[in-house]
Amino acid sequence: MLGACRGPADTSTIPPPSTNDTTLGSGDVFDIRVFNEVALSGTYRVGQDGTIDFPLVGRVNVVGLEPGAVARMLEDALQSRDLLRNPQVSVFVQEYLSKRVSVVGAVSAPGNFPIGTGLTLVQAISLAGGFSDLADRNGTTLSRRVNGEVQRFRVPVDDIVSGHAADLPVGAGDIINVPRRVF
Known about the structure:
wza like fold; 2 domains; alpha+beta; eight-stranded mixed beta sheet; two-stranded antiparallel ribbon; Outer membrane lipoprotein wza fold like; 10 strands
């Protein structure tokens, strides 16, 4: 059974969905498409300083902004500088490298991994090299910030893999802990 781990016996709560933070951060990669302007369209990576260099506009600070806000900002810049009359800009995120999930404990290669679109708990464990021989697979916990408070939820991974439980999407800042079996 999937549930919150407030105390050792409390396993009654299903974790709420992660709040999808879709703001851009350092290292994120995205495409900018300007309708009918191939020379202005391209792929960009957010620099360590939180900016990109956009043709004809220059350095633009995008860190902390939603993709739609970046598109509107570029439309405004292109129009206010009389570069285009009615620019139509779209931003499509390829990789959120600034958003990460941590996988710790009895896995082959613990670490922090970027969250791709639709990454699930089982996929995150796979990114960490899978379970070690000593893993307590059904003792796996997911720690997630809910309403400003970190809560832990037990996740029965064997039940997910066998199709008896649904896999869970993971979000930025989640921590997956795979404990060792007690013999």
